[in-house]
Write a structure and sequence with these properties.
alpha+beta, cell division, single chain, about 10% strand, four-stranded mixed β-sheet, 4 strands, elongated, Peptidoglycan-associated lipoprotein, OMP_bac, about 180 residues, signal, cell cycle
């Protein structure tokens, strides 16, 4: 086809496209995505510009950074009754905190150890300290400098849950990372 004929055909089609864009349609003629049902998209050409709805493509490094940032929002590590070992379910959270601390050697963290009210106050202070030290040791194993970490034990003195139920006791057996 001659270039001039193609241009004339396009100029003739433009007013038709403008008129069709202003026409109203019933709900039955429009599908859920807002496009006309029954049209193939080739009736008026396919050179239109689509906008919106495109999510940015993140690099793997950026995806990992966002994942670690989200994991760092969690700052409580829970423990089993009368135990001070870090459970594997909290490894990702501690790894996120450890990575952040290694990358930011000027940042310090306070690790608070807590216990539920069962046991003597002296025992619970010692248990809270073992829990805080366990978290510190885990982070140190990742390369966090001991000078970046401080520990304190509150034992049973600062409960999160006062309900005296098994679930409440579970919430009180914890170590908390405070920046």
């Amino acid at each position: 086809m001659d270039l001039n004929k193609l241009l004339k055909a396009m100029l003739v089609a433009l007013p038709i496209m403008a008129i069709s864009a202003c026409s109203s349609t019933s709900e039955s003629e429009t599908d859920a995505s807002g496009s006309m049902s029954g049209t193939s998209g080739t009736e008026y050409g396919t050179g239109g510009v689509e906008t919106g709805g495109v999510a940015p493509v993140l690099s793997p490094a950026e995806q990992q950074r966002l994942k670690l940032q989200e994991l760092r929002r969690e700052h409580i590590i829970y423990f089993d009754f009368d135990r001070s070992e870090v459970q594997t379910e909290f490894a990702e959270i501690l790894e996120a905190h450890g990575t952040y601390l290694v990358e930011h050697p000027n940042v310090r963290v306070l690790i608070e150890g807590h216990a539920d009210e069962r046991g003597t106050p002296e025992y619970n202070i010692a248990l809270g300290e073992r829990r805080a030290k366990s978290v510190a040791k885990y982070l140190q194993g990742m390369g966090v400098q001991p000078s970046q970490m401080s520990i304190v034990s509150y034992g049973e003195e600062k409960p999160l849950d006062m309900s005296r139920t098994d679930e409440g006791f579970g919430k009180n057996r914890r170590a908390v990372l405070v920046y």
